[in-house]
Amino acid sequence: MVRITTTRAVAVVTAVASPVMVVTSLLVYAALPPGWHIDVFATPDTAAGLMFPPVGAFLVYHRPRLNVAWLMCGGGFGAAAGQISGALMFRAAADGALGAAGYLRYVSILGWLVSGLSLAVLVPLLSPDGRPPSRRWWAVAVLGALSTSAEALRLIVRPALDHNPWPAAVPNPLAIEALRPYTHLISTITWAGIYAAVVLSLVSLVARFLPSDPLTRRQIAWPLLAFTGYVTFLLIGERFWLIAVIWAGLVPIAMAFSVMRYRLYGIDTIISRAFVGGGLLAVISGVYFGAGAPAGLVASRENQVAGLPAALVAGAFFQPLRRLLQRLVDRALYGHVGDPRLLAERLTQEVRRADPAKALSSVVTVLQDGLAIEGAAVEVVDGRPGYVESGHVGSEPRQIPLVWHGETVGRLLLGRPGPRRFAAAHDERVISTLAPYAADVAHAVRMAADLQRSRHQILTAREEERRRLRRDLHDGLGQTLSSMAMTINLARSSLKKSPDSADTLLRDLRTGMDAVSGDIRQLVYGLRPPALDDLGLAGAVRTLAVEGPPPVTVEVSGDLTTLPAAVEVAAYRIVQEALTNVRRHARATSASIALDRAPDALRVRVSDDGAGLPERPRAGVGLHSMRERAAELGGTCVTVPGATGGTTVEAILPL
Length: 655
Known about the structure:
By secondary structure, the chain is α+β, with helices and mostly antiparallel strands.
């Protein structure tokens, strides 16, 4: 524990001292007298001294044994030491202390040696886990150490400059005059080695990136992007020197994102959009100029129109090219696991092989895998199953409605990002690709549940009807027939002895037969109203209309003779129940019935001018029965206030 505390203290001191030294050096440079001013006193080492030690200390605080973090602290401190030593060297020389300036120059060179070797070679070579890709890559570290050491040694023993731009020359007690003819050659060789080591360190990151899993790729992408930009601007030359300085300050931040691993802040969004945008710009520019050049030659006099063919061709290439580049970048960044197109193909195969319930589980699993989140779930409205979860979505998941042809069939619930988190842009691409599949499967689950419920209702209704018929036949008709059989036997036995008793028994038998006939008619009437077979739907409804007050008018439009039997029964029962409610509760003076046959539905409307609906209507047995009869056919039945008062019952029965 003491050692860890000590290391953290060292890191904190480095993080505080380095920026102080850099800021001090800038102030010293700014205060130099005329003649000693330098054109560029802010270098990549300036940004390194400001940014690397604080970020390195942050990493040391969280992961004290990570050698990359210590290299960032040491390299940044070396850069800051080089900066302050260089500034003090110029200050001492301007004040006339040329001997002290010479020794400060050595300190500045050593600071450059430490920072250059640590930050430009070792940090990218060992990122992000503190080890090179393989043992062979240590040769790059050796090359960098030899090259930077040789260049530092050359600077230490370098003879005085032939043309000194400053008012006085800073002496070099260790100068070797014999090396003067070879100084330029040695510098060329050492810098070639330094640049080679820097580029090879960058290549080591690429060598890590290509064979890695998606999580490691995301981790490596940060330093790879940061060092690629820095090295590119550095090698281009002085024209982009300021950008190189700014970019050098961003490198440690990228390293922190990479090393900490968790919540990788969407580096693949940056890379994806950069590659897609750059690819579009390059290809479309080539197409534009390739088509614009011939057009300009052919229509040189009409130069305002000459670019039109080029613009049209480039525009035609834009969208397909963007999709192609996006797929290629997704494949490179996320591999087969995170490619939205491959996920959709996988999901299609899973859905084809499974029933809706299992397909829904497959959808949830693929979504969790494709988005790299802790959990995903789908809620289906009136579905069985109504909720399927993979992983754990947590208490506050992201909710996405699942819409099927304009109808909301459920919700998609997404949990928190997991360790292998993809970027927000990738998340949206996966969601937009897979959500329609989830909506289709959720709709299929609803349809399967509706079908199952319909089957259950049909089975229940059939069994209830059978039980009613059995009870009526056994308890009513069966007992009556048994009693009639006994009466016949008694009548036969008393026919010779007591004709009057036999006659009485036969009269009772006739009365019983009338009761049996009535019971049979009631059973048949319960199955289907006889009036429908005798009079048709229109005639049967008119018969209901004249059964009692209030007076009821009947209007019929369309051909009602070819209606399905189920529709006829449902319409008759709905009219019958509606008229019963009118006569019992409405206190109406008149009512009307309208039957309208359309090509795809039968519309039934029963209206009255009575008291209307109460303020808080309650659906009784009659209203519930009407709705159920309409729903059994896939139709609707509503009870609403009439346009001029009273109540209107309207049912739509699909044909």
